[in-house]
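Quick entry, no commentary yet.
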Amino acid sequence: MERIKEYLLCFVGSLFVAVGVYFFKIPNHFSTGGVSGISIILSGVFHLSSAGVIAAVLNVAMLVLGFAFCGKDCGMKTVVGSLTLSGALLILEPLVPMTAPLTDEPILELFFAVLLPAVGSAVLFNCNGSTGGTDIVAMILRRHTNLDIGSALLVSDLLITLGAFAFGIKTGLLSLLGLTMKTLIVDSVIENINLSKCFSIITANPDEISKYISGTLKRSSTVLEATGAYTRGKTHIVVSAMSRFQAIQLRKYLKSNYPDSFIIVTNSSEIIGKGFRGF
């Protein structure tokens, strides 16, 4: 069931990318990297077929890299992502012909040209998938270097984005701005998708609190013995990690039953272990 959910998310994420590319990036010749950026440049400057056809050809060629360097699971999700993106572009071209931008506000167009594909890409990356193309290069860089996914996207797409200057200084600068925004948005969305709450609860009632966490919230916890630095009294620290919704429940429980507890809550977007993510 979890596998089906991931493939559905790959499909939905790719549709977000397709809508942003077709309705906002292609009409404005914005190139923020990726296969879509290459296709926009080639179709606009050299008049080589349609952007959708070029994207489809390039995506098929890049799938080999996905399987070779990112594994079968990532490769199959990339197949779903790239075919969905290319198919959506090919369907939209005759269905909703775009001969000009939707508005005469380039900044507004750039915002949606960046936001929709960035959100879609973040969903795909979080599922260990991509839309193919230079996204695969970014995933390889993330796996084999210390770069986060946003920085890896910046490195893999920078040269392609510079190609947008072929459409003029204004378009080139807007594309460069769009690429910078894209890298920041992708990292931000991924962090928010995986955001969890980590609790450190200093209390004299560790057994009751641990029982609530395991019995009601279905989460594990760790109890540590501690000594107060000022009072030198013995106390306990209950440590636990959980989702944002579970964190709200725990805070309400502590407020109602143990208001004297001292609670430290931190955010984490990368928790590795049972019940969370693997290595």
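second:
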Amino acid sequence: MPRPSSPAWQRPSIYDVARLAGVSHQTVSRVLNDHPNVRASTRLRVLQVIEQIHYTPNMAARALATQRARRIGVLIDGPVQNGPNSTLRALERAAREVGYAVSAFSIGDDEASQMDSGVMELVTQGVDALCVIAPRESSLDLLRQQTTGLPTIVVKAEADPSWHTVGVDQRRGARLAVQHLIDLGHRTIAHLAGPIDWFDARERAQGWRECLAEAGLPEGPYVLGDWTSDFGFEVGRSFELGNTTAVFAANDQIALGVIHGLHDRGIRVPEDVTVIGFDDVPNSRHFLPPLTTVRQNFAELGELALRRIIAAIEGDVEPRHATIQPELVVRESSTTLAGEVLAASGASHRRWRVPTSWHPVAGSRSA
């Protein structure tokens, strides 16, 4: 068959593949849909023919045959944040590989109207399923009021009786970070938390609490804010260091701000205060110092979410939950014990104090 660049080239069909591979078109269809009941030798032969003649499925015809659009509607909270954005990109890549398209709608601060508008827009596009990425509690409450009749999957760490759920084990990630600090000898560990309405922020804070409790350590200072480096910077430059020698920040942006704020006061990281983040954003290895953080495998998360979406489309209605394990990435921001405070036996216990003049940045709250 002529190559695609030839003027005589025409799109090969599934029947061309079947003829050249010596199988039925139903077998070719099973290979395309990754059906398990195909012999390995047959699968290989079909795939070789597909590559040889440059066959690509006719998605329009497939949609008509299955009465499906092969399109997934995605509602995404916090689209500018690294986690939600990375999850969306991973889902889009995984979907393309199996012939699905993704339509995304970003939910802004005006949640009530945005949620209604988003669901309506995606439903009118004829999507086969809905996926919600990085939801806030308030946005899920609004989603529960919708009656689309579509299979719905939610990307969050905790199970939910209403929907299929997948997520990175946020609590486990926080415990990895805090245990690392404890193993280094830290005994007073602060946590700068993300917004309380976000499920991921809650899980990370809970992991911090649980790890300290299991080690017999008291909770260190806890400050509730937003996801921005501005929040971390204000805390870093305004808090008075006491006996706190380590900070677990709810994301890498907060950690970046903390390091900047501490630096402006002449406080060194990690010599005086150790700082750990969460997410492993692409530039975290270039922070000064390079940041110890918790890595989330977004590519695996996107693939897992897609598998659950397709299963739901194909009739798996029983809500199921699956998680991916995070990984601690140790860099220079935690390779040295914070402060001669720890090195000196019998060092006096000091505390972080929140100055009365300090206020969280807009959109955040203190605890």
